[in-house]
Design goal:
By secondary structure, the chain is of the alpha/beta class. The chain has one domain: TIM Barrel, CATH 3.20.20.190. The strands form two sheets. Strands 1, 2, 3, 6, 7, 8, 9, 10 and 11 form a nine-stranded mixed beta sheet that branches. β2 and β3 form a beta hairpin. The chain starts with a strand and ends with a helix.
């Protein structure tokens, strides 16, 4: 069985997360989907960014994403982030397609992309007009089928205006006819129920980190999810079998080592989210 390969925030282990160059690296690995996080700017633009807060390289102060406009954020966050010691393979180089795309649109390759720019970049990568000699035709073909797995977060003390984010996703889908390539995931049940109403065509993924000790099947049905997305080290054979018996798919996060991939494969998971999609591909070919 072919395991669905999902790049985490692009390819976080190899390039700085949620950047054009991280997305490009993941596309080079022929990932089946890219998981990324969405946040709302003060002017209601939606950007790819993991946390509700950010800090600039010049300050340790934490700033709220939703207090800044898109232009402000893309001005402040315009330099490569500091080296992340958790990812020793991470390199700070701009991919060739990223550079062409950013030059064409007047963008900074290190600034967080908007959701629309994310979609446009994947289309550009897949197209035959983007200096096709830079990428293998198989890579570009894979990019044309890429699924977009979009996470929306909610903190108990900080409302994320998820309805606005979901409506932006809806408008982008209409413009690009991406209905069958869209996934929305969340830990928050209310957000998933809202997504089911606003995006009835969209696949939904229920995120868990092992702390929920209630009826998972009931929760999946209640929110309308078809993907179960647990923290990988909280998963076991019983849960995988239970999900499959109820016609749900299992896509755990974030497994980064061959022994973890092998264990998950033996459990029969449908996909794996990883920071190292290139290493995962090599592991698959080496078996």
């Amino acid at each position: 069985m072919k395991i669905h390969l999902q790049g985490h925030r692009g390819a976080r282990g190899n390039r700085p997360e949620n950047t054009f160059t991280s997305i490009e690296f993941a596309l080079d690995c022929q990932v089946d989907s890219i998981e990324t996080d969405l946040h709302l700017c003060a002017d209601e633009n939606v950007i790819l960014f993991h946390d509700h807060f950010f800090q600039s390289n010049k300050s340790s102060h934490q700033y709220l994403i939703n207090e800044f406009t898109l232009k402000s954020l893309q001005t402040i966050l315009k330099t490569p982030p500091q080296k992340n010691t958790r990812f020793p393979m991470q390199e700070f180089q701009v991919g060739p397609i990223s550079q062409i795309f950013c030059n064409k649109h007047g963008l900074n390759p290190w600034a967080p992309p908007t959701l629309g720019q994310f979609f446009d970049f994947v289309d550009f990568y897949a197209s035959t007009t983007c200096h096709a000699e830079e990428k293998h035709p198989d890579w570009r073909n894979s990019a044309s089928y890429l699924c977009f797995d979009l996470e929306i977060k909610q903190l108990p003390y900080l409302k994320c205006k998820s309805e606005i984010i979901l409506n932006v996703i809806l408008e982008e889908c209409k413009k690009r006819n991406l209905h069958d390539r869209m996934i929305v995931r969340s830990f928050d049940h209310n957000i998933l129920e809202e997504a089911r109403r606003i995006l009835p065509f969209c696949k939904l993924g229920l995120l868990t980190d092992g702390t929920i000790q209630t009826n998972l099947i009931k929760e999946m049905r209640d929110v309308g999810a078809t993907l179960f997305c647990p923290k990988f080290d909280t998963l076991n054979n019983h849960v995988v079998n239970l999900m499959h018996e109820n016609h749900f798919k299992v896509l755990p996060w974030t497994a980064n080592h061959p022994d973890e991939w092998q264990l998950l494969e033996r459990m029969g998971v449908d996909g794996i989210t990883t920071d190292y999609p290139g290493e995962f591909r090599k592991w698959c070919f080496s078996k």
